[in-house]
Amino acid sequence: LLIKLPSIQDEADYIAQHLKEAHKTGTPWSDMAVIYRDYPRIGKPVLATLRKAGIPVTYQDDITFAEKEDTVKFLTMHSCKGLEFPLVAIPGAGRAEVDAGRKDEEARLLYVAMTRATRELVVVGGE
Prior knowledge:
single chain, about 130 residues, alpha/beta, Rossmann fold, 6 strands
């Protein structure tokens, strides 16, 4: 699922709503992950929105200690390698300011993040 939205806040709201709906229909929080590219611009507002929506979230630094907790895992593209989740949401697609020489690296990071999903992938982004 690829959704284009006008702002990071709209993306955060969409992800929060999507995760809540998935949870209502039987997906445990622990089967969900939000994987983002950079914290200040993308991760921070999304994390704040998830918490405000009452979604239990384990932030990246706590994941190794909370794998069995029923919480949504919130981690960077760099730290998600080797992990898998039935439902993955990726905010900020297409919003990165990337030098021409780094486009391949950014594409690889996005690929790694996308392939963490085993059942459902939700990618939201903008210009």
